[in-house]
Amino acid sequence: MIEPEIKEIKDKVRKQLSGIGNLPSVPQIITEVSEMLEDERTSASDLCKVISRDQAMATKILTVANSPLYGLPRRVATIDFAIVIIGFDHIKNILLALSMLEAFKVRNSSDWNHNDYWKHSLLVATAAKRIAEDLHYPKSGEVFTVGLLHDLGLVVMQKYLNYDFKRIVELVNNEGISYLSAEKLVLGYTHEDIAEYLLEKWNFPPYINEAVLHHHQPSLTEKNSVLPSLIHLVDFMTQKLNVGNFIWDDKYEFDENIIDILGFGNSEYLEHFILNYEPLLKWQFESLG
Fold first, then answer.
1. Among 56, 75, 168, 235, who pairs with 182 as Cys (CB 3.0-4.6 Å)?
2. Residue 51 pLDDT greater than 90, yes or no
3. Residue 29: which of 75, 81, 79 has the closest Cα?
4. Is pTM, for the whole model, over 0.85?
């Protein structure tokens, strides 16, 4: 995509979303935790006290930590132990990601199942983290964060752009096109562009934002194409294996460039690789209830 087109899309997203007066701002807990992490004297116990004030958030962190594919060596029963074993920096990213998902949470409707959305997001995050570690990618924590947030733009569309959301669903049902194509026709941009705008607003690192922006076509990424490629792979795997797949990914277009980006060599090896992970994905998905 050429530079003027990118700017035009960003301007469209900014114009439409900046007109929404009740978009959530960064929660107080994130500001407080960020400040604490800048102080080298902050201990796991200090962070635990802050996080534990929000019991719903504390429960979600423990759910993530104890997910089978997250890869921790033992069950985590307390927040302070979770902080120690996961690490300060990654806890901050998990907090940010979970806070965003909670802030933009929407109720179920005839065209939206939030439980399916949450389970798909968590499955993609944990499976992509596991595959990143198996492929010796050094920053699997970042992979987890991108996986958790890769479809954030969808809940924003459903909650704040509901008229357009319904038009997209109608177009898919009537014309048989992919949801991504319908988004472009109705909005002029996609859920990836919406997510990038919001992640910038919440001060996520640029490489996280870019990976979310290009998770449907990771070969467009300018700097670290491995990060979105891992998310793209697992997103595709959920459809191919019919495990934790989300309806919005129907007619998923696979970016074959990730075969080279992730070093698989050829499509036959990739096919074998995907099938080997099927039992693990099923195990993780079943653990989510």
1. 168
2. no
3. 79
4. yes
